[in-house]
Amino acid sequence: MREVAILLDLFFYNWQVREEWLKWCKSIPTEELQAERVGGMGSILKNLIHVIDCELLWINYMLEEPYHYSEKDFIVNLEDVERYSLFTKNVTEHFLLNLPKDYEKKHIQISSKRGDTHFFTYGKIIRHIITHEIHHMGQLSIWSREVEVKPVSSDLIVRQYIKKDPF
């Protein structure tokens, strides 16, 4: 289960970076957080919501009883995003701590909007969630320079992120 600990470690890294971006957002006027931008999901706030949405969506695909965030359709400000992030983090962490031993063999079938059918292992989905977040945090770094505020550092090697090793 060492590989699960490594995956969990990367989630802790991502969550710490996300929390720092949420804190960073508190120094930015609301208008800038909601301003339409080129790339990503169109705005800083929408980018953060998208990352959290996708994490919960993919975890829910793997859960037998998916979690629904009842306030999802009412997210309008940074505080709402913070609550959604915490909810999703708790769901994901619980799932990862109880990940089946055969997670690299377990798979799910997904049908795309175009009607294509895909089969993904739990392991591939988990790795996708990790890299998807990193990708979108990079977009925030670009936009932070547009608003002339130093971006959050995502440098893993010098970061003292919280690491739990339950195995």
UniProtKB/TrEMBL annotation:
SUPFAM superfamilies in UniProt: DinB/YfiT-like putative metalloenzymes
Binding site for a divalent metal cation: H50, H132, H136
InterPro entries: DinB, DinB/YfiT-like
GO terms, molecular function: metal ion binding
Protein's UniProt keywords contain Metal-binding: yes
Keywords: Metal-binding
The keyword Heme is annotated on this UniProt entry: no
Pfam families found in the cross-reference section: DinB (PF05163)
Family the UniProt entry places it in: Belongs to the DinB family.
Protein name listed in UniProt: Damage-inducible protein DinB
